[in-house]
Design brief:
With 114 residues, this protein is an alpha+beta fold. It contains seven helices and four strands, in the order βαβαααααββα. The longest helix is centred in the N-terminal third of the chain and has 12 residues.
Length: 114
Amino acid sequence: MKVYGIKNCDTVKKARAWLDGHGIDYEFVDFKKTPPSMGQVARWCDALGVNVVLNRRGTTWKKLTASAQSNADSFQGAIAAMVGHSSAIKRPVIETGSEILIGFDEGAYQSHFL
């Protein structure tokens, strides 16, 4: 299982603490050290939808130009925005092999991992 995110993100910290506390093994991939590929982001968006993956509420999104935000209205434009600005991806992204989860929800984690 892989957990993708940013090391100092509060939501990623909560998710990792929950996984650690329940003895669940995972590999952490820091977006700052290993940015996601276009293929990865496209796969996440295909599985969950662009609106689930793209964080339009965060600081990174708000700092994008109006043109870049407008381009993100298309599937390819959204993927390009997230690849170019990995902080615009909702975090964490968890790949379990067969499933992809985004964000931290304790109830969802309990039903999925326990």
